[in-house]
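User: I'm putting together notes for a lab meeting next week and I want to include a structural view of one of the chains we've been expressing. I don't have a solved structure, so I'd like a prediction I can at least talk through. The sequence is below, exactly as it appears in our construct file.
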Amino acid sequence: MRLSSIQVGKPRLIGETGSEATPWTTGYGKQRVLGPVLLRSLNLEGDGQADARSHGGPDMAVLAYGAGHYPLWRVELDWPGLAHGAFAENFTVEGADEDSTCIGDIWEVGEAQLQVSEPRKPCANISRFWHRDDLLRRVESTGRIGWYMRVVREGRVEAGEEIRLLARPHPEWTVALAMEARVNKSRDPATARRLAECPALAADFREKLLEVKARAP
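Assistant: Thanks for the context. Below is the predicted structure for the 217-residue chain, given as structure tokens.
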């Protein structure tokens, strides 16, 4: 695997000029970084999240996305110029995707070590930022969602560096299967419960797996 590119960006207010009905603050629009970047326990230097309730924190310090998805998107969306970082990811990774990456995987890149903590649950901001109403649906239906990582060891990382897989304690739980378990938790609660027992899984994802909606009276 290889770290193809790194993107960071602070939340910013957009939509003041009338392109949006209501101005809003977003962490989308991250920019590519050249040279070493310091990875700390909560995020990369220069990065930030607009919605701290749903994004960020120790279990969501870094968002990773497969570089191999981009050629597909460029054709399917008729968008030749679609650049890395378009899905708000920090790490665009060659040689990894949702079917080959597992919950609990430990990666070493540069001076740092990270662990895969949970699938990324896409939100409507993907469509809102790019003014493409169908983009969120496409991301969900293709399974090209990305995944979050926690920081095991802080350090400097740089685009172009090799990513080494140091450990795979839970090969049975690919990112794709973990998201499938969440989507199907009502129809298959047993699988959701088994995933919830995975110690490497992020706490917020575990809570969603075990969440039971109250029946309407």
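A couple of points you could mention at the meeting. The domain at 2-170 is CATH 2.40.33.20 (M1 Pyruvate Kinase; Domain 3). Residues 83 and 130 are 12 Å apart (CA to CA).

User: Perfect, that's what I needed.
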